[in-house]
Specification:
alpha+beta; 60s Ribosomal Protein L30, Chain: A; Phosphoribosyl-aminoimidazole Synthetase, Chain A, domain 2; seven-stranded mixed beta sheet; 10 helices; globular
Length: about 325
Amino acid sequence: MDVGATGEFGLIERLAALAGRPAPGLVVGIGDDAAVWRAGDAFVVATTDTMVAGVHFLPGLHPWRDLGWKAMAVNVSDVAAMGGVPEFALVTLALPPDTPLAAVEELYLGLDECARAYGVTVAGGDVVRARELAITVALLGRAQTDDEGRPLLLRRDGARPGQALAVSGTLGDAAAGLELLRAGTREGPLVAAHLRPRPPLALGQQAARMGVPCAIDISDGLLQDLGHVCRLSGVGAVVRAGDLPLSHELRRAFPDRALALACSGGEDYQLLLAGPREALERLSVDADVPLTLVGETTAGEGVQVVDEEGRPLQLPTSGWDHLRRT
């Protein structure tokens, strides 16, 4: 068996079994959007993501400055999904020697632009030679705490049966933007959604302060990411297709595929939240981004999408997997 047969998430489970042992001070280990551990009276939130040429971006199609923005934003999204506060980043560049200097400078300008927008300082990193260009960002921050010093965290395993599900922003725009980019479109809101995701950091922090127990960032597709929540929390879920927030631009550009792109397209970097309905309704009133209730958790297993009459719809539940063969 090779890693293409296990897939990304099967491999993570195997590696966690080998190295993911408990340790003093470790609050959240392998399997969530970020790791969390105690450092004195504080709680560190840490995550890392890598973007590789030809896998996560297409040289010649993705502008360098937008690439830098996105490399930072995908990490901010992980911290948002924990309800944390991002602070410092380490950036590793793997570069072919013939990479234009101006391109690398543009990349860093975009990376710094995103860092400033979210209150992050680039504190260091590394530069190495490689055959393909890759950017790795390791982002460190802190968890918010309550009056007794306990961490206020959103977790993938925090959902319980009978809770409401809510998503921020609109879904499917980034996947649609990638298709348009490949087809030659260089501008517009859908392309911008793909090139410059804007994770709802303040929403995640507010949800943690309000005691919402569960969240995940929508990076691999709504249904696949919701499936992770269900598996780790031991619940099922029902999603109402008619309540999913789809932008007018998505419906206009892909009228026959808008729902499928919203469910499985990925790279939205919005938040999926699970918690008491009353709490999510209050959060939707005060949030700085749109928050839409789209379904409920159940005592069963798996994820089901239903129409207005409650009838199951057949939609692909698999999203992005770095390793699984298609």
